[in-house]
Amino acid sequence: MSSQLSNVLVIGAGPVGLITALALAQNGISVRVVDKAKDFAVGQRGSGISPRTLEAYRLLGIYDEMMKVAHEYPDVLEWNQDGKKLRVSQMMARVEPTPDTPIPNGKRVAQEDTMAVLRAQLGKYGVTVEPGMELVKVEQDDAGVIATLLHDGISENIRVAYVVAADGAKGPTRKLVGIPFLGVSREEIGMLVGDLELFGSLDRVHWHKFQDANSNWIRARAVPEKPNVFFLSSHGPDLDLKRGASDTSYLQQYIRAVTKQDDITVGKVLTLQEWRMNVRIVDRFRAGRVFIAGDAAHVHSPLGGQGLNTGAMDAMNLAWKLVAVIKGVATDKLLNTYEEERKSVVSDMLQFTNGIATQTFKIGAESSAWTRSRAGTQLAMHYRWSSVVRDEVNSGIKTADGAGAYATSGADEMLRAGDRAPDAPELVGVNSKATALYDIFGATHHTVLVFEPALVDAVSAVLTRFPSDLIRTIVFNASGASLPGAYDDTAGHARRAYGSAAVAVVRPDGVVGALLRGSEGLEAYFGGIFSAAVAV
User: Fold this and answer.
1) How many domains does the chain contain in total?
2) Among 306, 341, 376, which residue terminates a domain?
3) pTM higher than 0.70 for the full model?
4) Range of the domain at 525
5) Which phi and psi (to 5°) does residue 534 adopt?
6) Is there a domain that residue 381 lies in?
7) Distance in angstroms (rounded) separating the CA atoms of residues 94 and 325
8) Three-state DSSP class for 108?
């Protein structure tokens, strides 16, 4: 058996596994990433990237790299049943940026490009994905996990402290550790989805939407980085999914019949496959030292564009907690809050996506079924009920559980602990350069925001009792201060965004961990996160 060479073994090299690994690696945690597939996946699926995930990329310091392969969502061109152009609309209404939300709209990044960027970033930390490695056995004891990996018929036993399973809905880890996957399969609901070449008169500017009199529908948009390739999805009573996925002649005939565009020719098929409806969530997100994330923990309709985005939030939530425990500055109890916080959000998200699927797949669905609400941005997703957030500013308002965790906080007029951390630009530091809060926040540290300069000494005294390498302090408008963490809130954006809080804490996953009236609450907050007296 191999000695313990890595703190964490990540099973699955999709976006969720890679984000988890990157967040760990940036924190100095040794990590190994394996995947059963021998080749890296290609295709567009999972290309809808929410603003909340884009903010996670900012926290990880990879936003600029992702923008190099990102595209705007195209406008939707709707065609009538006679194959004539009807109207142009937006799938989700675009909104203007604001100081607290400079990224209000999503982007489109092909999943293969997302993974390529993440793999390249991991390489900077000496982490290379190992393909063709299948997990076949898991054993646990008080000291760690013994994982048996199979590669080309040769087994390898390795010992690690923790395992993160991001190996998808059909991955083996969940079954190996005995975690039930609760929910339903709806075989009667399915669609054809994937990438293929389409030649003809369809422009490459719009997302084309067709629906005939029998409620067969086709959605097709161009893949900008691949000439002649379109991402296609289709469902309908006349569509034989199995045949459509394997018989290009049949598929071409079907496409022409629905679109009334007789010049469309199907070329090379890249990734086209049959999809059937599953709505499931794990009974629990943890089995000892094994944690379940992404599609391995929850599956649903892809129509809401929430799969990768929800998995990314799993990864960001879990990673910083694993970091604290592995570094010995937090107890195992902190890891229980991964399920405490994420399960309610995911359950709420499943209701959201199931509602979209129900409307979209029903016979005679209205055109409006394809319009997406702002809930899909995940900007409103919160953990207000969590046992490890502290709110002294809104202490009279209590969220008892995770009801509405996915989409309700954005409707409130006030910021609360557990919400997404607002951004704030035009902060000028001692170097006289302007910056923004999301350029200060990061996946490697909690950020303490001190809005009352008179509290600096008291805050500093409290923080001496907690790990300094995991906490960064920012002081606003401290007249004459030359501290590295001193910033002038020149336009008042930070003050407005964080309300009346004297002190606020933003977690490494971009969540407001605490809104406080003074330094006493800071000790209570960090005392609930870290072990006592663990200053570094």
Assistant:
1) 2
2) 376
3) yes
4) 421-529
5) -120, 30
6) no
7) 40
8) strand
1-41 pLDDT per residue, tens: 555 568 999 999 999 999 999 999 999 999 999 999 999 98
Q: Can you tell me the distance from the alpha carbon of 144 to that of 157, in angstroms, rounded to the nearest whole number?
A: 13
356 located within any domain: yes
Structural contact between residues 42 and 114, judged by C-beta atoms closer than 8 angstroms: no
* C-alpha span between 336 and 442 (Å, rounded): 23
CA 108 – CA 356 distance, rounded (Å): 20
Q: Domain for residue 412, yes or no?
A: no
Beta strands in 341-483 (DSSP E): 390-391, 427-428, 434-435, 446-450, 471-476
Q: How far apart are CA 294 and CA 310, in angstroms?
A: 7
For residues 208 and 79, give the distance between their C-alpha atoms in angstroms, rounded to a whole number: 7
Q: How many helices (H) and strands (E) does the chain have?
A: 12, 27
Strands (E) located in 295-396 = 298-299, 390-391
Q: How far apart are CA 444 and CA 67, in angstroms?
A: 22
The DSSP letter of residue 73 is P
Residues 163-169 have a mean pLDDT of 96
Query: How many angstroms separate the CA atoms of 350 and 249, rounded?
Result: 36
Indicate whether 25 and 162 sit together in one domain. Answer: yes
Residue 77 and residue 88 in contact, taking contact as beta carbons nearer than 8 Å: yes
Domain assignment of residue 143, yes or no: yes
Segment 338-389, tens digit of pLDDT: 999 999 999 888 777 766 666 666 655 555 545 555 667 889 999 999 999 9
- SS3 of residue 255 by DSSP: helix
